[in-house]
Design brief:
By secondary structure, the protein is an alpha/beta fold. It contains 13 helices and 14 strands. It has helices at residues 7-13, 95-109, 145-154, 171-177, 189-204, 207-215, 241-252, 266-271, 279-282, 305-310, 328-336, 377-383, 399-417; strands spanning 42-43, 88-90, 114-116, 134-137, 158-161, 180-182, 233-237, 256-260, 274-275, 288-291, 315-319, 340-345, 388-390, 432-433. The strands form 3 sheets. A 7-stranded parallel beta sheet has the order 9-8-7-10-11-12-13, with helices on one face. α5 crosses α7. The longest helix is centred in the C-terminal third of the chain and has 19 residues, at 399-417. The chain is globular and about 70 Å long. It starts with 6 loop residues before the first helix and ends with a strand. Bound molecules: nicotinamide-adenine-dinucleotide. Nicotinamide-adenine-dinucleotide is lined by residues 164-165, 186, 189, 192, 237-243, 260-263, 292-295, 298-299, 320-322, 346-347, 393, 395-396.
Length: 435
């Protein structure tokens, strides 16, 4: 997908939809009563309470004292009318995003209509979106009911997620307040799959330890013995876009790939993946297990004490999907008891507020302290293990993925700016809705 989207293509795809007026006179977005969605719009089957971790939030929001007055909220919600202009607040921006995404989004909507904020979205930072009718969020932005209420009171009625996952968005609250939510469903499954494989190989061949030794003039090999990937059995949990990409690479390396998914993929079977009926059946048969399913009620703490017990002794767990799939305390116990040999994780269940941030210099306020106030003991002790490899949610971070995220985000925002969803029944093409 190109990082640039032609205006003509997008305008041709936009079909205006009627706006329903409720008895109270407030015009609402049509999200709650949409007709059946096109296949690309996905429905959250089971709402789950977002797995938020409470943190000190006040310092995140330099303007957190700006409290919107309900009377400031516009009367009308729903897609933009022809007389309105898209005004966008982008949260959780960072230098790599600004380099790749700012030019694309500003070219599409005009630099004067887009405001960029480094801070993540929280109830305290949400007032920064005052004057905007749409917001653009990233994976760890906190879009719970409290935050949605603040945004909706300001007149924000569209959220464009710059990521595939939406487990931190309270979709029911969005529906209640007439806020539509879109996502970028597939920006580069290769990016995440390749990162998972890179982590597997780095951990197996102890590349971090080997490199550190060489930088210190230690050229010995003792303690660095790995294993051939060829001939090993790798278990994939979730054979969607990313899981299938990972399976393809692993098969090419000569691995046997077993998989568990609630839906079996014909494409995966055709490439040589063998399905089992349950995760419980999968775990004892694999030297490596890689998680690629979404975080839902069903998959929360998929890996807990009971499932770690089922893993082969000496095996490896790789999680590039969502932190909440793994019970971190149970993982630490499994490593301590040497039930599993090692773990690679790009995601962590309490990563919100930590990952994507530089916390290394946040010690000045506490004289004598060398620890950030946000220091996370569980993460710190996990990451310092020689048999753990942790990255801070960077699996998606390739130039191609960032370009694709920008262009899909622009497409999603153009639907909103163009007066409504281009999907069936007026749904946004990449919309996600609650039940
Ligand atoms: P996808 O929708 O294409 O595939 C998900 C697969 O998981 C589907 O085949 C689905 O049937 C399966 N699944 C659902 N519930 C399951 C269950 N209970 N048990 C087993 N399988 C189940 O999604 P994708 O694009 O392949 O992305 C997978 C996940 O990767 C996302 O949900 C997201 O959490 C994660 N992700 C991580 C990053 C990163 O940077 N680390 C980036 C993008 C996505």
């Amino acid at each position: 997908m190109s990082a640039h989207v032609s205006h003509a293509t997008m305008l041709a795809a936009v079909t205006p939809r009627p706006i329903a007026r409720e008895p109270c006179g407030r015009i609402r977005a049509s999200v709650p009563k949409r007709a059946p969605l096109r296949s690309t719009a996905i429905r959250l089957e089971k709402a789950r309470a977002p797995n938020f971790r409470s943190r000190a939030l006040a310092e995140d929001a330099p303007e957190s004292n700006i409290v919107p007055s309900p009377s400031d909220a516009p009367e009308q919600l729903g897609p933009l009318k022809p007389t309105e202009t898209l005004k966008l607040a982008v949260f959780s921006t960072s230098s790599y995003m600004r380099h790749t995404q700012t030019p694309v989004i500003e070219e599409a909507f005009g630099a004067g209509n887009v405001r960029w904020f480094d801070v993540g979205l929280t109830p305290q930072t949400a007032p920064l979106a005052a004057g905007c009718n749409a917001t653009c969020l990233f994976v760890n932005d906190r879009a719970d009911a409290e935050t949605i209420d603040v945004l909706a009171d300001l007149g924000v009625r569209f959220i464009a997620m710059r990521c595939a996952g939406f487990d931190r968005v309270d979709l029911d609250a969005c529906a209640r307040r007439g806020v539509a939510v879109t996502r970028t469903p597939a920006y580069s499954p290769h990016a995440i799959a390749e990162h998972a494989i890179a982590m597997m190989l780095a951990l197996n061949r102890q590349l971090m330890k080997g490199h550190a030794r060489v930088t210190q003039g230690n050229y010995s090999l003792s303690g660095l013995v790995g294993f051939d990937m060829h001939g090993k059995t790798v278990g994939i949990v979730g054979t969607g876009k990313i899981g299938r990409c990972a399976a393809k690479i692993l098969l090419a390396m000569g691995c046997e790939v077993l998989a568990y998914d609630v839906f079996q993929s014909k494409e995966a079977i055709a490439m040589g993946v063998k399905y089992v009926d349950t995760v419980q059946e999968l775990l004892p048969r694999c030297q490596i297990v890689s998680l690629h399913c979404p975080l839902t009620d069903d998959t929360h703490h998929l890996m807990d004490d009971a499932t770690f017990d089922l893993m082969r002794r000496g095996s490896m767990l790789v999680n590039t999907s969502r932190g909440g799939l793994v019970d971190t305390a149970a993982l630490a116990r499994a490593l301590d008891a040497q039930k599993i040999a090692c773990v690679a994780m790009d995601v962590y269940e309490h990563e919100a507020g930590l990952f994507f941030e530089d916390k290394s210099e946040e010690t000045d306020a506490t004289p004598g302290s060398s620890l950030s106030p946000d220091w996370d003991l569980s993460l710190g002790s996990l990451a310092s293990r020689p048999n753990a490899l942790v990255t801070s949610h960077q699996a998606f971070l390739t130039a191609e993925a960032l370009g694709n995220i920008a262009s899909t985000t622009v497409e999603n925002l153009r639907e909103f700016a163009g007066g409504g969803g281009a999907g069936e029944g007026g749904a946004y093409v990449n919309e996600v809705v609650g039940h």
